[in-house]
């Protein structure tokens, strides 16, 4: 029978407690949200919503084509200029998603004969980029510049190391200065996914590479998403102008994909300008994360110290993690639930995302619910 193997896979997932299901949310919900990636609380900000609506009224509902045909509007170019300037890079290129941006950066910068060194804790989009690239990939131990050095030793062709700046599972930050030093010793490029750093780290939220002094370097390329701190949709690659020009000509997820919808571009551009105007939002997100961690550990829970805005709380098993998250939801709190294969270490956990707009009372409420519902 066609697709008969799907039933076997479904049963295996059920037995392992790894079944996933969609849960449509209403536009208005009483749940306290610690599950989304809306770090700065901008997704429903009136100015951001109006920026999206204004762009849709001006440019229409869709981009109408690929970026190289009709899908590049003046608004796209404006966002690229302002995003590159804000983060300290020479140029930027906007994609329809952060996933597409990562696939583009890795595949286009790792030709035949190249070596890719990928951190063991990288996001799935970076891993998939490595799989699709024509170079040979070596996986390096998590956040270990010496492991990157060893993986690059003896290779004499093009090479690139690939890493998240802030890892999405535990929220730990990569040693960016050490990674850059290891790459430079071997003449390798460095591709950094700053999805969880933009808007949270660096001066006024300019990102982890900016904070590490790597912004604008000719051997560093950074990818970002517009769907987290900027509360919109889409992604971008930032880097030297010649790298961006290369992506325009070589990145398949740019050339063959429809451009990002104008509404998403307008929302992201408005959010970026709002962040420029209110840089304190970035610092506040970090403060909330640290307060969550402090209160959770004081309550006897095993929480990982956050380097940005992600706080993870370890759970005993996949099944108990699911039950814990469901009990939190029943008590009015929405939290993330990460289980294999989404976690590289096989340990399930609740994943909490700090938001700059959370009040002290909301933080206290969240910690109380998580403590009262613990397995």
Description:
The protein is α/β, with parallel strands linked by helices and 375 residues long. It has helices spanning 5-16, 46-59, 74-87, 98-108, 124-132, 145-152, 176-185, 208-211, 241-250, 252-255, 262-277, 280-298, 318-330, 360-372; strands at residues 32-34, 91-95, 115-119, 136-140, 159-164, 189-193, 220-225, 235-239, 310-314, 333-338, 349-353. The longest helix is centred in the last third of the chain and has 19 residues, at 280-298.
Keyword list:
single chain, alpha/beta, seven-stranded mixed β-sheet, four-stranded mixed β-sheet, 14 helices, 11 strands, 15% strand, globular
Entry summary:
The protein is α/β, with parallel strands linked by helices. A 7-stranded mixed sheet has the order 2-8-7-6-5-3-4, with helices on both faces. Strands 1-10-11-9 form a 4-stranded mixed sheet. The longest helix is centred in the last third of the chain and has 19 residues.
Outline the secondary-structure elements.
Blueprint lengths: L4 H12 L15 E3 L11 H14 L14 H14 L3 E5 L2 H11 L6 E5 L4 H9 L3 E5 L4 H8 L6 E6 L11 H10 L3 E5 L14 H4 L8 E6 L9 E5 L1 H10 L1 H4 L6 H16 L2 H19 L11 E5 L3 H13 L2 E6 L10 E5 L6 H13 L3
Helix pairs in contact: 2-11, 3-11, 4-5, 6-7, 12-14
